[in-house]
């Protein structure tokens, strides 16, 4: 079956430009997470969507970052006026409904480079 | 405030020997722990997990041990194989308000298994 997909796989942009990163979660998964991993660092939580509940935005580093999830499926992470420190791999993960095991299924990530 | 700590950024072992990766946590409310493996240019993949009601979980060559009194868990890989070379992340979760089971991640340990 199809796993979590992310696009683009690589994005190079100039400082000050806006970027949009896309995540297609596994069908039927109700929870969706965005993380980023900067060079040599661990996974930094950004935002979490769970069904129709209000998203947990507590990890977004600034108001330049926003995300939406349309129709409970595809999610888009938008970074406005990109800065060089935004360069990182942005990872999306989804989780099936139910208490389960908390296992999150990750996409391959989008590598963002801000010049 | 790192609630999940992996104090060894890297580990090198010989093929066939045991690899032991350690993880410490500070929040006694964590009730589920997971290990993920990450290869370069790929998203993390789930490896093994353990509930706080257990002290050991085994899956093939992988065993996770949990010592709640010490707030410590470890992942044992035996025998280690060159294909196990990857970054290993420890993650923990707790049931907080709003059914938001957010994983808290360590910074990872890079394991190199030498032939």
Could you explain how this protein is built, in words?
The complex is a heterodimer of chains A (115) and B (115). Chain A is mostly beta strands and 115 residues long. Chain A is built from no helices and ten strands. In chain A, a hairpin with a 5-residue loop joins β6 (65-69) and β7. Chain B is mainly β. Chain B has a single domain, classed as Sandwich (Immunoglobulin-like). Chain B has strands spanning 4-5, 10-14, 19-25, 32-38, 45-51, 56-59, 62-67, 72-77, 86-93, 104-105, 109-114. In chain B, β7 and β8 form a beta hairpin. The radius of gyration of chain B is 14 Å and the shape is globular. The relative contact order of chain B is 0.34. The model of chain B has no long low-confidence stretch (mean pLDDT 92).
List keywords for this structure.
heterodimer, A: 115 residues, mainly beta, Immunoglobulin-like, 6-stranded mixed β-sheet, 4-stranded antiparallel β-sheet, B: 115 residues, 5-stranded antiparallel β-sheet, 11 strands
Write the layout of secondary structure elements.
The complex is a heterodimer of chains A (115) and B (115).
Chain A: E1 5-7, E2 10-13, E3 19-24, E4 31-37, E5 44-50, E6 65-69, E7 75-79, E8 88-95, E9 105-106, E10 110-114
Parallel strand pairs in A: 2-10
Antiparallel strand pairs in A: 1-3, 3-7, 4-5, 4-8, 6-7, 8-9, 8-10
Chain B: E1 4-5, E2 10-14, E3 19-25, E4 32-38, E5 45-51, E6 56-59, E7 62-67, E8 72-77, E9 86-93, E10 104-105, E11 109-114
Parallel strand pairs in B: 2-11
Antiparallel strand pairs in B: 1-3, 3-8, 4-5, 4-9, 6-7, 7-8, 9-10, 9-11
Radius of gyration of chain B: 14 Å
Taking pLDDT < 50 over at least 5 consecutive residues as the criterion, the unreliable ranges of chain B are none
The rounded Rg of chain A comes to 14 Å
Elements of chain B, N to C (H/E): EEEEEEEEEEE
Number of domains of chain B: 1
Number of strands of chain B: 11
User: Please, how many helices of chain B?
Assistant: 0
Relative helix content of chain A = under 10%
The two chains with the largest interface, and their residue counts, are: A-B, 22 and 23 residues
What's the rounded overall pLDDT mean of chain A?
91
Q: Give the total of beta strands of chain A.
A: 10
Q: Mean of the pLDDT scores of chain B?
A: 92
